[in-house]
Amino acid sequence: MAFRKITCFVTGGARDAAALGSALLLATPAKGNVAALYLRADPRDVMPMVGEGLSGALIQDLMKSLEQENKSHAAKARDHLDKALAAAGGVYCERAPGSDRVSGSFTEAAGVTEDVMAAAARLSDVTVFPSVAKEDRTAVLVGLEAALLEGGRPLLVASEQTPAVLGRRVAIAWNGRTQSARALALAMPMLTGADAVHVLGVDTLRTDAEEAAPVVDYLAWHNVPAQYHKLSGTGSVAQQLQDACAEVGADLLIMGGYGHSRLRELILGGVTRAMLNQTTLPLLLAH
Fold it and tell me: Which InterPro entries match (predicted)?
């Protein structure tokens, strides 16, 4: 299986470029399609928060301003797609079965963020998001979590800069949990074509690093040579993973997302949250 149908969430911000570039790198081997999805902010959603005590004329002005902002961001997002396609040698195409080369399309959608993103993810081989490090826009974070937790498909979180290659030297963070198993299975299209695969295990109070060793044998049955690394450095699990990825030259880290509840990770922190806050390493996540 190859990644033929990819959705890329765009916002009109500067990070769109790296997300679209990463999505096109994933789609190119199979001449797939990247559907850039821009989610329009509905002015009516903010009315309950700011509407009380405002005159009808002022509310109309506010809605008009938000609509103009929507148009501006959508135009920027479309421009980012056009530039990414040109750089990748791709073409604009909206209909299956696509073109004789990698292609892209642009769609604007309106609705509840969670519903729109989860629905899009369910009918995508993989959904790509811009980096969310230090992201404070609720719609972006909510959309990412909905795609990850409700989409049933893998999610790629791009780095801040467009990588030269993606999925050539891959690292797998394995903790023996269901989320790791799903991430491994859903990432198999990338693993079978990788030049090098590294399996990372970390000892914690709840996980045994040695549980990652059998992953190498599992991958061998799929003709994927891999190396096992037991991490015994200092620092948090997230920091050890980042250090190991840098040491082996990984251009992608595959891992399960939100092994603990989102609320627990929000309050106490967690590996998923910490990895989402770094900006240099693309992540392929599954829940």
Answer: Universal_stress_UspA, UspA
CA distance 19 to 203: 32
DSSP SS3 for 91: strand
* Residue 5 host element (H or E): strand 5-10
* pLDDT, tens digit (0-9, with 9 covering 90-100), for 214-240: 999 999 999 999 999 999 878 899 999
Evaluate whether 200 touches 231 at the Cβ level (below 8 Å).
yes
pLDDT digits (tens, 9 = 90+) for 162-200: 999 999 999 999 999 999 999 999 999 999 999 999 999
Verify cis geometry, omega within 30 degrees of 0, for the bond prior to 97: yes
Report how far residue 105's alpha carbon sits from residue 81's, in angstroms, rounded to the nearest whole number: 8
Domain 169-286 class, CATH top level: alpha beta
Rounded to the nearest 10 degrees, how much is the dihedral formed by the CA atoms of 47, 131, 84, 3? -100
